[in-house]
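Is manganese (II) ion placement plausible here? Inputs below.
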Amino acid sequence: MSEEVINTAEELEKKEILKRYRQLLKSAKRVKGKEDRKLIREAFELSVEYHKNMRRKSGEPYIYHPLAVAQIAAEEIGLGATSIACALMHDLVEDTELDLKYITKKFGKSIASIIDGLTKISGVFDEKNSPQAENFRKMLLTLSDDIRVILIKICDRLHNMRTLEYMSRNSQLKIASETLYLYAPLAHRLGIYAIKTEMEDLALKYTEPESYREISKKLSQTKEDRDRFIRSFIRPIKTELSKIGLKFVIKGRPKSIYSIYSKMKKQQVSFEQVYDLFAVRIILESEVEQEKRDCWNAYSVVTSIYKPNTERLRDWVSSPKSNGYESLHITVMGPKGRFVEVQIRTRRMDDIAERGYAAHWKYKENSNEVSNYDNWLNNIREMLENPESNALDFVEEFHTNFLSEEVFVFTPKGELKKLPVKATALDFAFEIHTAIGSTCIGAKVNNRIVPLSHVLNNGDQVEILTSAKQKPNKDWLNYVVTGKAKHGIKSFLKEEKRMAAEMGKEILAKKFKNEKTEFGKDNIQLVSNYFNAPSELDLYYMIAKETIAKKDLKIRQIINESQLLQREHMVQSMKSSSEHKNKLENLRKEHIIIGDDNVKLDFSMAKCCSPIPGDEIIGFITIGEGIKIHRSNCKNAIALMSQYSYRVINSRWASEKPVEPETYETLIKITGIDDIGIVSKITDVISKDLKVNMKTIKFESFDGTFEGTLTVFINDTSHLNDLISAIKSIDPYINVTRQSVD
Ligand code: MN
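Reply from A.M.:
I modeled the complex. Tokens:
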């Protein structure tokens, strides 16, 4: 009897697997011909066979996952047969006994190398190395051969995000943070906006469940009103566009939950104060030769009906972003005094924006954005060729250089250059040529002379000033963000140091010889220690630069003293480590539960985000400072979790409140309209009415408004919320927000 039930369930699953497979083939629009279909079928059969006894955390057959990843690749990015086959097999080498050799034999080298790129590095990592960073680097390294690795990895990550509810809280936070830090920006830079947006929303759902629920609730509550507004906004535009004979689709769509959340956080405003909750998009059905003219015609129709805010015009039709994004964005004043963002683009542009890189292939012949894109890829390749950086530096550098937004600037001849946001005149100089960068003394930005540390803005025209006498120095590293400039400066400094060190080495060798001491490794090390030189090279360099005076190089004496010191130091360090331990043990332990078992662990609160009871928190194991507790939405924590997830430890507040409540320092910011006595009213509410202690307090006023920053001692989040609403009730224009140190 029970046998039969199992059989039925199994058969149902088999049916479902086949159904999903057929669905996949249907969505694979670029799959044509027998060969393609054969490849996909073989990949599917192999994957079914080897994943046969595996299940996902949700209890479903494992094969649903590769099928779903392939489905996303086919339908949402529009990839072809090879990618679909690889997506179907992406977990085979990592999770089953099948090896790469077999894949190579059966499917050939190029498929095998994609699968290899998708297979995580396994092995032992020391504290300084992060397996996540190593894996990310490995994936990117294959990018120089095949971009499809990253596209499939993005599909894989998207499906894992969609099914995140089945994972443990700890894994949810790790995966969501990594998605926010790396994968969503990566999807953004590859121009796959639809997936980027979905990833961000899903990540927010797990890192900040409270805000996510709140915003989605408010979005649905205001939907009817919004729809009515959009309809009345669109009506006259429709009529006028039709009059001039344009074919188009026009729709209003709410911004993503994550982008609303970011705006609220960045501008410190409430949901109601975010003015552009939605955007209106006009998609034109244009012939390629007519595109630009049609877009500007539509622009002139919109702006003759509604008054534009010209400061908010973004023209990515004339100069597309590096990722191929093309669109005209303009903010206009709509009815009822509400600002509305209007995006104007053609069907082709929309397709590229939604589906990204893959969609380029279709249009390759007729447009120039591929060259922009190739440019970006070439820059990445250049960086990948640099063998210097370790995996963590690499991820960080990749993040600033390739995942951040960009600024558009011009050369004196009007040539357009794209640099990451916060790039300086010096970055620009290195972007043009290492020789220009190395001799840069400053720049003229829009004809005004600026120092080389000057941060560039969109639209700046930059002329670099050089001098043959100039050369890079260490401080320059603080002024640059691009990898190109950093490497240029570093390699110059290294070479300069190496040459100077040669001289220093000669001087030292002579001193050794004079005192008849052996010029060997151990002795040199002792001299290095004596002068606190970080390395042998540094020691030589310090001697050459006379940071260490020649007369102080009394070799015998130094070696003797250094040996003594070494011994003393060892004893001292043993003492201090036991002292440190005692101090930590006195810390309060009862309020936070760390880890899954009841082992008592030392912790301290992270200064960057100052968690208070009621906040979502995570623990992070630091080197030398025990466990640090962060808020789970803390910027630093997200960066840490995405790189060192193996050092994250589950933590939560104890549910029972302690008898004697602890207080925690919290930073709040108050803004509002300046009024006589407003400051004393606020401080009265805080200290007299609510009896909250304040540590620091600072009020400033400008042009009839004021801004106050206060450090207060509070017990938990509900205490804080009471405080915030009490201050708000003083005056309708007062806004209060909790701050974190960023
Ligand atoms: Mn997978």
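Short version: Residues 483-514 form the longest helix (32 residues).
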